Amino acid sequence: MKFRVERDVLSEAVAWVVRGLSSRPPVPVLAGVLLTADEQGTLTLSAYDYEVSATVTVEADVTEGGQVLVLGRLLSDIARNLPSKPVEVSTEGAKVQLTCGSSRFSLIQMPVSDYPQLPTQAEASGSVAGDVFTQAVHQVSVAADRGDTLPILTGVRVEIDGEKVTMLATDRYRLAMRELTWSPNTSDASQVSLIPARTLSETAKALGASASVNVSFGDGSRSDGLVGFEAGQRRTTTRLLDGEYPKVTSIFPSSVDSVSVVETQALVEAVRRVALVAERNTPVRLRFTDGQVAIEAGTGDDAQGSEAVEATLTGPEIEIAFNPQFLLDGLGVLGAPYARMAFTQPSRPAVLSGQAEVDGESDESYRYVLMPVRFAG
User: Which InterPro entries does the record match to this protein (predicted)?
Assistant: First the structure.
């Protein structure tokens, strides 16, 4: 095998495929990246760990086609630090020789015959705008569980109903739901999948810059439990989580007593400052009155902090407490100039949504439900 490729092209391609590789793979070959050079002028890089696969095809000047397997993270580190010159790669016995300017590296070939077959990507089920996909995943995955107590809660539930997509995630302390539209290949598209939040988030970051992302849920005859994403020459698949997601939409309050609208960034900065004195697992208290929200943390002999932010209030005054980080997580992904907070009682979940103007309509396409924390007094 022998080919020549631009340094930036190689570096970006390797970085894309190795992003999900485990530092401690169960089988040594799974630490590798498979390089396939085609004399038609393409180089395909692939990585797979039985859970997630990633493949990218780039242009290369291929003198001799072939296939080699080398350590992925090592190749990524080398490619990222090479001088800005064309890279020449060739096989020589059991080694892979990499030359760039005066830099020379000799990498060990891993046994290609031991490498698992990559999962095949099913035909696309539909497509979604890249920026919409990235924002939606970012907004929802923030609420997914990061522990292993209940593996099913580490996923994002994605429901397809025709042109409507509903993404949902919860860790039992907060719940995020985003509704969006996509372009399905069939008008009667219907699907419910549970996608690992971490993988979905990484995929959205990597593919979201593209104008459009193709999504493949497989067809009815396939039971391989995979979902695939493709944008340009980048393709990735991930294994879905098994199990029945809890029916959590009942958490959404059926009625609202008080509604407050606050400038998002002002509230973020105030909560962040006041939370500096909130010790681990202690809440910040928010007291909503006409014209302002007072934010406080700390009581008694502890360090204390307080700040007031201008806010509108419709309905009775209310005092409620939240985990400051959970509140900041929701505000941070809102993507709107103003935050609308809807309440029933201090002991009941609050609903956070965004709106473009202080006296405008609320954008219900994204809702973040936050469980309050009990506080003394």
Answer: DNA_clamp_sf, DNA_polIII_beta, DNA_polIII_beta_C, DNA_polIII_beta_cen, DNA_polIII_beta_N
